[in-house]
Structure formats: structure tokens, C-alpha cells
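S2.1 Query sequence (Flavin-containing monooxygenase)
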Amino acid sequence: MTQTHQQPSNSAVKGVPEVDAVVVGAGMSGLYMLHKLRGMGLTVQVFEKGDGVGGTWFWNRYPGARVDVKSMDYSFSFDSELEQEWEWTEKYPPQDELLRYVNHVADRFDLRRDIKLETTVTEAVFDEDVERWHVRTDKGDQFSTQYVVMATGCLSASKVPEVPGLDLFRGRWFHTGHWPAQGVDFSGQRVAVIGTGSSGVQAIPLIAEQAAELTVFQRTPNFVLPARNHPIDPEHQRSVKERYDEVRRAARESGFGIAVPTPTKSALEVSPDERQARYESVWYDEDNNLVDMLVSYNDMITSQAANDTAAQFVRDRIAEIVEDPETAAALQPHDHPFGTKRPCLGTNYYETYNLPHVRLVNVRKTPIVEITHRGLRTTQEEFEFDDLVFATGFDAMTGALTAVDIRGRGDVRLQDKWHAGPRTYLGIQVAGFPNLFTITGPGSPSVLSNMVTSIEQHVEWVADAIASMRAGGLSTMEPTVEAEDEWTAHVDEVGHMTLYPTADSWYMGSNVPGKPRVFMPYIGGVGVYRQKCDEVAANGYEGFVRRPQQVPAGMS
Ligand code: N01
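Output C-alpha cells follow.
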């Protein structure tokens, strides 16, 4: 790290190293943030918990882990040489390819020298006297910094359910979000999987290929569309690369950060045959996208009746594929509208339940009571197995932020401020926490979008905001309480114009006992949101207070 301070500053504690910015996390957002800030001449220290970079793609190495946004979309656009030189192999690349890509980015932009691995940031405290953050890690590091960027990811605080008895279990157990780097061999094993979200849906068919027996414990069935993954046609790759500017622009202006046509019709204004044809084209199209069903009609997430047509279409496909009627019925979602829990893409997911050694247990009907030393017990039956896989998800969106002891003005803890749900302005900053930025934070499109599109937009906006502060000789930036209140109310209001809040989903915090039920992401759309952020900046960072260094008492 080169110590090239551009602005004089006071350090909170003598002898504590100073940097301009601390970035927490070395996934895609942390790496790009480092690259941007360093390019502006700032000194930056990145801390990363893992022993490698990659974030999501470092941790989620479970069998079948792959992205479900197309590779040509799920990739950085900030550097055209990078964009042109990287060759993707599949429509939806697997985890190891994505991890290679992220490592390539780290090497290509010489990022590693400012990243400290295997180091968890435990505390960040704002010192009002000197207007700097004091950051501490579990390895004893301390840094004084003007800016803190939380690039901690929306789905990184993994969650093992609060079922008693795990400490008694004598077999091996794993969480999909913390998979061993060396992989796991399930050959000949009796395996249990708890959870049927995106991770479970991807892992189950591959675990079934190895295991002697597989029991899947399902609480809520999900809508799973066929991924139709395949190798990328080199001609297609070349043609997208030729049109990349246009493709990226369309993605940035779109609803979900993926360039798909905007629907103009209601599902209810077309004939049943036309609707069926549309849904079939989504289901069977080799080139389909995760969001194609959702963008089939303009009222899919606002009208229960419109949504029901898509939900019924998927339930019908499940009934066609799954041979045992009881299992098929258990796999058909009835308790939430299509898309209000994140839709999943699968490969042979429903087909897997036709295999003789695979069994589905409906733990909504017969809940898990406890884990035992040999397996688990439901209210109806005792199960024995060798390996237990938790595909039980994450304390999403806020978990990785509140896991750090972040204290702002008046020593207020972020987790206390957010006791009734996250409050942010634009999902980027929190009132009372000056110069603390959250990449893809709650209140931004984040998890409802192509994450890379949203990461780039946030990183670039934050970098511009910091550049503007430095150009103006300003020391701190934070939202007003009014701007934060208004934005938080807007996020909630727009969310409640849709069917999303009707589902018990991690978008709502429902998967974490005791977490407030608040619709956390912003559903207004990636393009609309970007425009709002740009307008705020163009209007002199409207809604933010930006101030020059306040002279500390006793120093004048
Ligand atoms: O986690 P989830 P995930 N007893 O929360 C169940 C992204 N992602 O890791 O629905 C029994 O979706 C829980 O049941 P319920 C993507 O954004 C992307 O699969 O709460 N079951 C649910 O079935 C995704 O949405 C990709 O009733 C329990 C499951 O565990 C997000 O990450 C791949 C339980 C958790 O599903 C999270 O996905 C993977 C209990 N006590 C992930 N507790 C791709 O890009 C929880 N469950 C492809």
C-alpha cells in the first residue's frame, strides 16, 4: 500500500495506521471498489474473511453451484478489454469458472497487494472528534480511515436453522454457503438435505447422483424452471461482444439489470392459448432467462390473478414430470405467488424425485423436532443418515452488515438503529453513519437484479461521491434523517404495490426468527433507481449533508 495522502487528517489514536478507505469484503463489489478508489489516488485497505478473493463464488462451492444470470450479463462491464478477453464456456458458468474469473480480475488489476485475507472486520467506530472511522479486525489490526465501504454481500451470512441437537450428530454436516474447498464425496452415503431454495435445487440432483440414499426435507416448495444450461456458441459470444455497449446499456436501463423486453400486456388480456404458448416458450426455450416468466406480462407481480396463470403453468409441468402423485403434489407450490420467493433454475430437479433412492419429506406437515446423533426426528418419523447438508440460506441483506459492530454518531449501533428493519437512503448510506457506504445495501435493487449490474452502479456512484467530496474539500457525507425516512417509506410503499410482501421469504426477513418483516430490496427497477441516484448526485447530492472538517474542540 502506498501512503499518498491527499488531504491532511487527524488520527483517532496515535500510532494507528491511516488509510483513506477501508473496504470490507473482497468479492466482486470489494474488488471493483478497490480498483476505483485506488485509481482516484486513495490509499485503500481491503479485509476479507476467506483465504481467497471471490465472495459468493469463494464460499458457495456446493455441487451444482452456478450462477443463474447468463455469463455474458453476469460479468463486469467497466473495462472493455476485460470484457472482450474473457471467454465464457457456458450459458450459466459453474462456481469454479466464476471464481477463476474473479481471480483473473484481481490479478489483471493488481488488486491483491491491498487485500488482507483471512481477516474479519469486527468493529468500525466513528470518532466524531476527528471525523474518522476506527476499524478493528479479529487479527488485531487497527486502522483509522476516512471512508468505510461495506462490500459484504447480500447473501453471505449463512444460516443453520435453530433445530436442537446438531452438536449430537455423529456424521458429517455441511452448509451450502460454506462448502469445503476440497469438495465432498457422497459416494455410497446416506445423505439428508434440508432446504429447497436455489442452493438446494442446484445441489440435490448432483448429490443424488452420488449418494446411496437421499432424503430431502422440504418446508416450502419453490417454483423451479428448467435452466437449459449449455455450452456457449462461440458465434453467439462473438456477436454479444460486438454489441456489448448496447447490451450493457439496455441492462442498466432495465427492470432487473438484464436486457429483456419490457412487457406491455396484462396476462389477463390475452387468450388462454396465447398465454400457454408464451409460458411454453419460456419453459422450453434453450436461451431462456431467469426473469423471462416474470416479464411475460406487465402484471405478473402486481396481480394475483395474472400471477396464478404462471403459477398453475409451473404446477402442471411438475405434475407431468414427477411420477408419484403424492410427491408431485408436495412439490407444487401453493402458498406464495410465483416469483415472490426467488424463482429457481434447475437441471433435472423435478426428475430427481423419480429416482428410487430419493425421497421427499414434507416438513411443513411433519416438522423437524430435533437432530439426533444418527440423523433427525420429525413429528412423525425418525431418520438415519451419514451426512447432513443444510441448504438453509442466509440472514440476507442485513446479516453481514449487523455482524460487524458498527457504531456511528453518538455511539449508536447500526443493529440498534435497524431494530425494526433496515433504514437507508438509496440503500447506500445510513443517517448518523457518515462516510459509511453499503454496496447493494437494503433499499436498493440488489438481490432483485443482476448483481453485477447493481454492484457496478453502486461502486461508481460511491466513487463519484467521494471524488466530489475531495474536490470540494469536504470531510463527511451522510443522509439527512428526512431523506432516509422518505426513501425507506418509498421502498416499503413500492414493495407493497406488489405481491412480494405476501410471501414468507428472505426478502422479507421471514427466514430468520425474530427478524422484522420488512420488504428489504427496492422493486422500482434498476433503470428507474439509477436515474434517481444520478439525479440526486446532479442536484448536489440532494438529501445528503456534506460538510468540511469541523474543527475539533480545543484545537482552534
Ligand atoms: O437459501 P433460501 P438458498 N427447516 O433461503 C429452508 C441466491 N442463490 O441458499 O422456504 C426446514 O432460498 C427454507 O424453507 P422456507 C439466490 O438469491 C443464487 O437456497 O424458509 N427448512 C428454504 O427452502 C437465493 O434465493 C444461486 O420454508 C428450512 C431453504 O431452506 C439465495 O441465494 C444459487 C429451515 C433456504 O432457501 C438463497 O438461496 C444459490 C428449517 N428450519 C443461491 N430453515 C444462483 O445464482 C430454512 N429452511 C443459482
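The radius of gyration is 24 Å. The pocket of 3-acetylpyridine adenine dinucleotide is lined by residues 67-68, 155, 161, 163, 176, 194-200, 202, 217, 219-220, 342, 363, 368, 391-394, 447, 506, 511 (CB under 6 Å).
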